[in-house]
Amino acid sequence: MRQLEPAEEQRLIALAKKGDADAYERLVMMFQHPIYYLCRRMTGSHQEADDAAQETFIKAYFALAAFKDGLSFYGWIRRIAVNVCLNHIKAGKREEPLGDRDPAIAASPLNELQEKEDEQRFLEALEALPPDQKAVLVLRVQEDQSYRDIAETLQISEGTVMSRLSRAREKLKAALAGRFARRPA
C-alpha cells in the first residue's frame, strides 16, 4: 500500500466529505488492495472478498460524515471491512472458492498434492473457527496487527483479544495435530 502523506490524506477526506467523488475515488484506489486482501483472508473466497470489499467502500462513503478528522482512514475503513466480513460469515453467506487459490510451487507432483492437502486442511480448520476467533487470528497473524489495534478495530478489550487468539490457536492446533504428526521428516 503506497502511503499518502497525512496532510494529503486529510485533504482528500475533507473534499470527499463535501461530496467530491474524485477525492473519494483516490482514497478507494489507495486502500482497495489492502482491504480486498483483508476480506480475502477473512472470507476465504475471491468472490466473497470482492463483495465484502465493495460493500466496505460503499458503507464508508455513506458514513464519511461520522469520520473523525485526524484519525487514520485505513484504521477506520479496516474496522468497517472486518465488521462487513463478520456479518457475511455470521449470515452464512459463505461460498466455495472457484479455484482461485494460487497453485502451489513444488518440486514434484507428490509434494504439490501434499501441499494442497495441507493448505486445504488449514483453510478448513480456519473456516471452522467461530467468527470472533477467526477475526482476531486473521488480524494478528495475517495483518500483523498489535493487540491494541485489534482491540480498537473490534471494539473489545486487549484481554479479550488475547483469550480469543489463544482459543483460536488451540483449536487450529487440535484440528491440524493429526495431519502434521504423521508427516515424515
Backbone CA Rg:
19 Å
Domains (count): 2
Overall mean pLDDT: 81
CATH architecture heading of the largest domain: Orthogonal Bundle
H and E string: HHHHHHHH
Q: Quote the beta fraction.
A: under 5%
Give your account of this protein's structure.
By secondary structure, this protein is an all-alpha fold. It folds into two domains: 100 residues, Rna Polymerase Sigma Factor, Chain: A (Orthogonal Bundle); 82 residues, Winged helix-like DNA-binding domain superfamily/Winged helix DNA-binding domain (Arc Repressor Mutant, subunit A, Orthogonal Bundle). The protein has eight helices and no strands. Helix 5 runs antiparallel to helix 8 and helix 7 crosses helix 8. The longest helix is centred in the last third of the chain and has 24 residues. It is globular, with a radius of gyration of 19 Å.
Name a few traits of the molecule.
185 residues, Rna Polymerase Sigma Factor, Chain: A, Arc Repressor Mutant, subunit A, 8 helices, 73% helix, globular
Give the topology, please.
Blueprint: H1 6-17, H2 21-43, H3 46-63, H4 73-90, H5 109-128, H6 131-142, H7 147-154, H8 158-181
Short description:
With 185 residues, the protein is mainly α. The chain has eight helices and no strands.
